[in-house]
UniProtKB/TrEMBL annotation:
GO terms for cellular component: cytosol. InterPro entries: D-isomer_2-hydroxyacid_DH (IPR050223), D-isomer_DH_NAD-bd (IPR006140), NAD(P)-bd_dom_sf (IPR036291). This is 2-hydroxyacid dehydrogenase. It comes from the Bacteria. The keyword Metal-binding does not apply. Keywords: NAD, Oxidoreductase.
Length: 341
């Protein structure tokens, strides 16, 4: 049996936007930070070129990054000759981990798995609430202020044996499929990287994207933003969706042709729950704000409020693993970035 080596407290510098540290780390998390890393928690670097940070950066073995961390360019890395690892207390590392980091052989970890949970929770809530036609019922009640006949009001509504189409068995997509398991729903999956066997193990039936669009009462998009996923839901694919179906997008606005979707929503043929749009923010005059069949939220599905504490602890877990010489639980690998968020 191998025993992990004695834990070390790697010399660590925090790099993130102003106010992000305070949002991530409460007093307990700061205590834990001090236990797992040799760090000055008062120092938060927002500019790798700033002269006052030169000494701290020169000694850093680890960077604990968060939203707003500037890009780790070759020039920035030159100021960190001892740097070995980057632990990101958020999801995607695309904004700050550059090719120069991979060329330097740095290891990278991210809390993306922890960030997947609130997005999956939002999605499941959206699927269940829209299946039940909760927003239609609320609107009718608000407008009519009288007893409404549920046989008229909610005809065709309900979450019994509905079909949910999941696009992308990503971290979030897998969480959604897992959270949907207890319900009486049929789950379809489209993901070009997932075998039939694996889809079956997840509890979903693998289908083509067109079949998913044709057969789903609710389509929920969880694929990453990549050249190959731009306008995955274009006019033609949206047209395949059955009348009255709902599109849930918590991924990225670019995966859907907004103009085509808006036309389907204005006509009332489709419904949507949109946490992301293209552009984000929609123009002030966009019908998406006011349409009764659209629930539009300002990119809030990911970690917010007390959920940031989960990201902080996930990142501290990774720093602790690093200090013990153990592999990361959520490693980011350069070769996987071409198909991940
Ligand atoms: N709304 C929010 O607040 C929020 C928060 C976090 C992430 N996101 C978004 O959610 C999406 C999923 O994030 P994640 O971290 O789970 O992604 P991820 O990095 O885990 O996704 C990678 C996986 O997506 C699948 N995939 C790749 N190309 C595909 C394609 N063409 N069709 C279907 N599946 C494909 C593959 O299984 C791949 O392994 C991303 O678009 C991300 O930007 C949104």
């Amino acid at each position: 049996m191998t025993t992990p080596s004695t834990p070390r407290r790697p010399r660590t510098v925090l790099a993130m936007g102003p106010r992000v540290r305070d949002a991530l780390f409460d007093a307990a998390a700061l205590d834990r930070l001090a236990a797992v890393a040799d760090t000055d928690p008062a120092l938060v670097v927002g500019d790798f070129a700033a002269a006052e940070h030169a000494a701290a950066l020169a000694g850093a073995e680890a960077l604990l990054t968060g939203w707003g961390c500037p890009p780790l360019t070759a020039a920035a890395l030159e100021r960190m000759p001892r740097l070995r690892t980057i632990v990101h207390a958020a999801g995607s590392v695309r904004h700050h981990v550059t090719d120069a980091c991979w060329e330097r052989g740095l290891t990278v970890a991210s809390a993306a798995a922890a960030n997947a949970l609130p997005v999956a929770e939002y999605t499941v809530a959206a699927i269940l609430f829209t299946g039940k036609r909760v927003f239609d019922a609320q609107r009718a009640y608000r407008e009519q202020r009288r007893r409404l006949d549920p046989l008229d009001l909610l005809a065709g509504a309900g979450n019994y044996r509905r079909t949910v189409g999941v696009v992308g068995a990503s971290r979030i997509g897998r969480r959604v499929i897992g959270l949907l398991r207890p319900f009486d729903l049929r789950v379809l999956l489209h993901d070009p990287y997932v075998t039939r066997e694996e889809a079956g193990r997840l509890g979903a039936r693998p289908v083509s994207l067109d079949e998913l669009a044709l057969s789903s009462d609710v389509v929920t998009i969880h694929a990453p933003e990549l050249p190959a996923t731009r306008h995955l839901f274009d006019r033609a694919r949206l047209a395949l969706m059955p009348d009255g179906a709902t599109l849930v997008n918590t991924a990225r606005g670019s995966l859907v042709d907004t103009e085509a979707l808006t036309a389907e929503l204005v006509s009332g043929r489709l419904n949507a729950v949109l946490d992301v749009t293209e552009p984000e923010v929609p123009p002030a005059g966009s019908p998406l704000y006011d349409l009764p069949n659209v629930l539009l939220t300002p990119h809030v599905a990911g970690s917010l409020g007390n959920e940031l504490g989960r990201l902080a602890h996930a990142a501290l877990d990774e720093l602790e693993r690093y200090g013990r010489g153990l592999p990361f639980a959520g490693p980011v690998r350069a070769e996987e970035l071409a198909r991940s968020a």
